[in-house]
Amino acid sequence: MKWLKRKSVDEGMEKKDWIQTLAKSKDFKSSYYCNQKTNVQFCLSFFSTLVDEEIVQQGILSPLLRSDFHSMDDLKKVIPLEDIQICDTPSKIEENLCNGFVLLTIETEEERYGCIAAKKEIVRSLTPPEVEISVVGPKEAFVESMETNLNLIRSRLPIKELIVEEFTIGSLSKTKIAVLHIEGITNQENVNTVRQRLKDVEYDAITDSSYIVQIISDNSNSPFPQLLDTERPDRVAAVLSEGKIAIIVDGSPHALITPTTFVNFFSAFEDYFLNWIIASFFRLLRVFAVSFSVLVTPLYVAVLTYHYEIIPHDLLGTLISSRRIVPFPPVLEALFLEVTIELLREAGARLPTKVGQTIGIVGGIVIGTASVEAGLTSNVLLILIALAALASFTTPIYKMGNTIRVLRFPFLFFAHLWGLIGIVFCFCILLAHLIRLTSLGRPFLEPFYPPRVIDLKDSLIRVPFKNSAIRPEFLRTENPIRFSKKKAKMKKDIEE
Fold it and tell me: DSSP character for 328?
């Protein structure tokens, strides 16, 4: 085997600016070789941290050394790899090198370069969902590889109508983003809107799907998320069949779903694996829990500050005895506990898992008991705060749960100012904001505003599957019929 002496990039190649910039990196390797049969001298350059060395040795270098290789035109004949490109522009070469390609140069061809794909794939194995946990149903979650995520979706929707469009966003990160929809079902106006918003993105580095949520949302100043993020491939496949659009970001284990509505954030995908009566009960329970979490502390402050006459006499004595040694007004007492709960929750989330659980449990018990014994808070408010914190955890979507946590503080402020009137005033402001809010141009409060009776079948309650023959009306799908309701009724058990 005839090997040429390994040289530096500057010795064997022309000192071009783009080559010099690449050569500054320690992981950029460049080696010279000679073909045994034709004596053609060539150079292989690549980033060692991005390419698979086994592919370089077995799939690229070995054929180039032993085969009948004369020029770039023979490249696809001698190398048994699929992605082989002939490039002549520095920008394209730089892009390929940074994406795990091997650069091939021949001394006799100075203006043509070969780029051979040999990317090293580092992908973690599939794991169960960590946020959207379900007792029944599939136990697969998305990973950071876009190709793997697309495979999980296509395996659930093996149809040619599933269209995947790819975009590259970020002047520095060059992040790949895939937009998925089903042709013939999804409204093309929605697809064009997503496509245009992604093309208009001007940002240097996109490292996660959360960036896309904030950039392409209809109202980026709203605390409410207008795109639903999920880590479940089965949920993405289900909403695509409804006529929605999914966005997959390379490097992110979460997919984005749009357009969406307010009630979608309180629907766990496990609801579809349960009986419709049980699923509807759980949805109503979540809505009640969220309302309780937001309003219970402001109601406590409003009643004790302005409207103590509405407290029943049997309960009044308990409240008076619990607050007889508390030196603070109700609003400061409530703020103290609310901030304490948020501190414990944030500390538990940032610390390692085992330590975080211990801090949350022990810290809550110790601080709560000590604050009551010290006379800083009443035991009644402590119970209400604990129940409110527990109720806020029932939200299936994490980002909506964060919004619910924040909403308590403006309600608390207005309750201190004007009592129950302040709570009603704050609720009116919130309702007006939600009415104006849209997701991809579609009403966020649908089906309640504007009222659409046909879409109520999958909102606060979930009707049986046999009554879900029509896709959601607000999506304006090209094919609104999911299945024939008449044929479904005909296929009953013989004993019926």
Answer: S
With 0-12 / 13-18 / 19 or more C-beta atoms within 10 angstroms meaning exposed / middle / buried, residue 196 is exposed
**Alpha carbon 277 to chain centroid, angstroms:** 29
pLDDT score of 257? 96
Whole-number pLDDT of residue 10: 41
Angle between helices 398-418 and 379-392 (to 10 degrees): 150
The span from the CA of 322 to the CA of 164, in Å, is: 61
Cα separation, 364 vs 139, whole angstroms: 32
Within a domain: residue 59?
yes
Whether residue 79 is predicted with pLDDT greater than 60 in this model: the reply is yes
**Interatomic CA distance for residues 271 and 255, integer angstroms:** 19
Q: Give the span between the Cα atoms of 35 and 106, in whole angstroms.
A: 11
Are residue 152 and residue 99 in the same domain, yes or no? no
pLDDT at 17 (0 to 100): 66
pLDDT at 7: 40
Whether 36 and 151 share a structural domain: no
The range of the structural domain enclosing residue 104 comes to 9-117
Kindly report, residue by residue over 27-36, the tens digit of the pLDDT. 899 888 988 8
| Packed helices 398-418 and 330-350: angle between N→C axes, nearest 10 degrees | 170
Q: How many domains does the chain have?
A: 3
Helices 330-350, 276-305: axis angle to 10 degrees equals: 140
pTM attached to this predicted model: 0.87
Compute the distance between CA of residue 38 and CA of residue 108 in angstroms, rounded to an integer. 13
457 domain-assigned: no
Kindly state the tokens that stand for 402.
């964060």
What residues contact 38, with CB distance under 8 A and at least 6 apart?
A: 68, 69, 70
CA distances from 327 to 130, 378, 406 (A): 43, 10, 26
Do 308 and 391 fall within a single domain? yes
